[in-house]
Amino acid sequence: AAVKKYQFNVQVKNVSRLCNAKPIVTVNGMFPGPTIYAREGDQVLINVTNSAQYNMSIHWHGLKQFRNGWADGPAYITQCPIKPSNSYTYAFNITGQRGTLWWHAHILWLRATVYGAIVIMPETPAPFPFPQPHQETNIILGEWWNSDVETLVNQANQLGLPPPSSDAHTINGKPGPLFPCSEKHTFAMEVESGKTYLLRIINAALNDELFFAVAGHTMTVVEIDAVYTKPFTTRAILIAPGQTTNVLVKADQTPDRYFMAAKPFMDAPVPVDNKTVTAIFQYKGIPTTILPKLPTSLPASNDTKFALDYASKLKSLNTAQFPANVPLKVDRHMFYTIGLGKNPCPSCQNDTKISASLNNITFVMPKVGLLQAHYFNTSGVFKTDFPDRPPKSFNYTGAPLTANLATSLGTRLSKVAFNTTVELVLQDTNLLTVESHPFHLHGYNFFVVGTGVGNFDPAKDPAKFNLVDPPERNTVGVPTGGWTAIRFRADNPGVWFMHCHLELHTMWGLKMAFVVEDGKSPEQKVLPPPSDLPPC
Ligand code: C2O
């Protein structure tokens, strides 16, 4: 095992896209930011120095940070922000994880431009459990706004409205030639006939689940969220914000220039966003003047059937070397409804603002870090009375509920005893509107044991759960008007954020946190905080 050191200078840089230049917050002046390379077993030290005018914090999305929430990054959950001109070193070990993950700012909407890939090579000797690719490349999907994102968000919040959707999607920071002035902002990868390539695909978009395809080629999915899967071949993938997907693509078609493309999956009655980002899959020797071929394999924006079929194909590899250790006995059952309600807002345009909620509770961000408050037993910062069930039962996905849309506000956490096995059913509701929500749990991977459309039926659905080889991941899409059941063992003590990874919904309060208590032995307790932890 090695020690990998990185220096992250958070700094503002002028970047131009779509015929328009603007200052953006970057790491080391790069957009997207630098890739973190490490090997399973390594220690990683990342010194973040904040030379921008915003408070900053960075989250290493999908790294478990065992006993070490201090390095997890979500502002006011596990740390106070790194103030301008200050620095903090994120120090963590990578144990038992290998694959593609990513990092992003975890404060305000700064992850719009502050993000990058994390590539963890398997511990030697434990090569990929699939044919060794000839080469690999990161494909980071993102979004671009022509205006300053923080300004747009602030203006929208004052009116109680959602901010405008982005002006383009991007692949590795580039919108591709279908957008104006973007010929030179096009990502291209060169391939040789007959060779196989590993694409490490990351959805860093703020608010869109995306389909991705390579024109003329199929892809073989081999890993999701840094966990190996049973390989399967597909014409397109679906990837939600927060998720990562590794695919193998063989350059086995007529040598030519092909588009790789991504566009949003939108099956809910929400604003339509049909922007397609393209990049180029370029066979060696083909002149770059030739117009690429568009993918016909991308599903339609509202192709719910493709989305459900795709999700059903994801299975853990589950071999002796990489077993799926699904908790078979559940100590604690939780059921959380996802809703978008409305609360009074006298200064807002319609006198109301949208408040998103879990079990009708809209999470209120604290002013100090929750992990500190937990570790030092500071009272008055949060309560641990988050309910395991919604306040009342109703027809979750039936007729729209228009009465009583008010939510209750609070910094309420759910306390879980060390090593408890938890089953959590996330249930979408028709409160305001059904919609798909990608849920991310910090500090853990979980098993997606079941999913379905409509209301979860506790009498019938558990019998259909996959307890053998369910997909293991850190972010899961709860289907529009449906439910998803996840299981995990609470063996990582600390305070762990759980939220919808659509930034708009997180901002509206679709979030909560678990306090996982210490176990009895010293190696089951939260580590002491590092001495340079940013003060509150
Ligand atoms: Cu990638 Cu709390 O998020």
Automatic annotation (TrEMBL):
Q: What does this protein do?
A: Lignin degradation and detoxification of lignin-derived products.
Q: Which GO terms describe its cellular component?
A: apoplast
UniProtKB keywords: Apoplast, Copper, Glycoprotein, Lignin degradation, Metal-binding, Oxidoreductase, Repeat, Secreted, Signal
Can you name the source organism? Linum trigynum
The record's comment on protein family reads: Belongs to the multicopper oxidase family.
Name the cofactor(s).
Cu cation
Protein name stated in the entry: Laccase
Q: Where is the Plastocyanin-like domain?
A: 10-123, 136-285, 385-519
